[in-house]
Amino acid sequence: MKIAIISDIHGNLEALKETLKDIKKRKVDKIICLGDIVAKGVHPKECLELIKENCDVVLQGNCDAHFSMEHKNLDQLPEQEQKRIKWNQSLINKEDREYLQKLPFSYEFYMSGSLVRLFHATPTVNNRAILNVDSIETKYKMFLPSENTISQNVADVVIYGHIHHPYMDKIYNKTIINIGSVGNSFDVIRNKAKDSNVLETTKSNYLIIEGEYNSKEYNSEIAFQFIKVPYNIEKELEDENINIERENYRYELTEGMYRDMTKINENFKKLGIDVDKI
User: Would you give the DSSP letter of residue 111?
Assistant: First the structure.
């Protein structure tokens, strides 16, 4: 069975449409979405409809939860965050918000003997960023079960989103994979003197996993394929005049960098990485 896994669409309709075309071309059997369908782009409702129509499993991302919930203390949040919440909620209806609120936290299955577990960010919370440069111990905890996981078994393969940066690593006979982002791809290790073409980053990213579905036997192959799909970024930005975060959205889509690199650099410093020497 071939399963396509997508994540972090963030209201980017053009990226999602081109990605779904590519998935259809590759004749996959199932599509799983790891969340963050809404926020940032101006087409969350259209993206939601496409996800509902095409995905067999949809998990809840932190943005799906945050921008669909009723904030009882909204007036106590920073003014800009209040504006973001109100604007994002104005783009979807009550039914959409209820759908997002009810999405499950995690999903898992066996593939060619491996227990594959999927979630948006971590097995415990959906809003913590685990980076490719994090410690081995931090990455190991990603395989452990929690009250939010379907089983209490330790996973063999973990697949997640949230950080918008695809990578794969191996520790303790286990595999950890981030599938990157469909609609908001960026790279966190950047240096103008060393960077390649920005299109290496800004394309839509997703993953295909292929193997013997629901088999606990290790006697068949398993494969992971990272795919980058080009899409028309300027077409996606045609409606940016109605986006209250237009400058940030354009910056992220065209530069492949997070809108606030200060936060990224602070995380690097906590890990003992000198960002000025990267």
Answer: E
Residue spans of the domains in the chain: they are: 2-277
Q: What is the pTM of this model?
A: 0.94
Q: Which CATH class is domain 2-277?
A: alpha beta
Average pLDDT over residues 134-158: 97
- Selection from 145, 197, 196, 139 nearest residue 168 by Cα: 139
**Contact partners, residue 260, CB within 8 Å, separation at least 6:** none
The β-bridge relationship of strands 114-119 and 157-160 is parallel
* CA dist., res. 138 & res. 130, Å (int): 8
Q: How far apart are CA 173 and CA 127, in angstroms?
A: 26
Average pLDDT of span 183-194: 90
Ramachandran region of residue 219, left (φ > 0), alpha (ψ -120 to 50) or beta? alpha
pLDDT at 275 over 70: no
